[in-house]
From TrEMBL:
PROSITE patterns: ACT, PROTEIN_KINASE_ATP, PROTEIN_KINASE_DOM. It comes from Phaseolus angularis. Residues 296-372 form the Protein kinase domain. Belongs to the protein kinase superfamily. TKL Ser/Thr protein kinase family. RAF subfamily. It catalyses: L-threonyl-[protein] + ATP = O-phospho-L-threonyl-[protein] + ADP + H(+); L-seryl-[protein] + ATP = O-phospho-L-seryl-[protein] + ADP + H(+). Its EC number is 2.7.11.1. This is non-specific serine/threonine protein kinase. ATP binds at residue 323.
Amino acid sequence: MVIEHDIESCGSRAVQLSHANHPRHHRQKLEVYNEVLRRIQDSDCEEAHVPGFDDQLWLHFNRLPARYALDVNVERAEDVLAHKRLLKLAEDPASRPAFQVRLVQVYPFGGANYSDSIHSDPSEIEDAQSSLNYSLKQGIHPPPTFGSSSNLEALALQTTKNNIEDGGSAMSVTPYFHRPMHEITFSTVDKPKLLSQLTSILGEMGLNIQEAHAFSTTDGFSLDVFVVEGWPNEETEELKGVLEKEIYKVKEQNMSNQGIHCAANDHYQTRIEQSPPCIQIPTDGADVWELDTNQLKYENKVGSGSFGDLYRGTYCSQDVAIKVLKPERISTDMLKEFAQEVYIMRKIRHKNVVQFIGACTRPPNLCIVTGK
């Protein structure tokens, strides 16, 4: 079934209000849904022949935010099915977090600018472009599920440039990006600090996150997709095994933390006295993100949670959102999570993720500042 604007499916009623407020996004979601459905049906996938599959697929798109449909690569319709299955697995507490790992190929440029950025010789440009077209048709490895950001393309481009400087040619290096990259997708119950916990797991494994996409469903689940590099080879089974062990360690630690939570609260004042004068955030020396608190101006509070408050404000005359940790809730574990959140946010640059401005890491004025 191809959904048109005047057809009411079992999941269409839920988007009528959003349709009125954002008609363009609603139309684009329908277009992506129809294209993904067509590709799945054309692939003769067994799941596509199950009665009601088209409605179930629409419900999948409708339970996720509009940007999921806007960002997903429609040529990878099978990835949408994988996300649907992972979200289903996450409904079982014993399967959480559900995850999958796959190898992906990131091409080192977008469009003709690549050739111009490396060579000025027309014949070499033509060779490079022909090689690219051949590479895309051959599909050495599938691309990431979501359209690659400039971060990934720049990384791939720099690697290709380095290969050329080492004596390679455009013809010999264009078809592949030789550093293995993997896409890891998680699904579990959505909760505060989930993104920080997942990035911490990947960091413990020595993986460097190059891109992240985080989605929350309307019924309380999450779908988080990471493109990472740093695994020494292209196989995925060993990576899956190591990831399972790290997840098991985190589960055990969480159970232990629940058992000592009450006792830990009794020692709050001692923890505060032992807190370092400045939270240590991992750095690669490539950026500066510690903010001058004298330039940070607070306005009205717009939200409050268990561990912090959200304010509207300005930093150097720029409108910002200020997330402030509540001093009375600070603990050693929270300081670690704060450091991890700052670390990952300063590395992510994507149109669908709020811009990271900086942070204050000196207690008791711990806060993260983002664009509005």
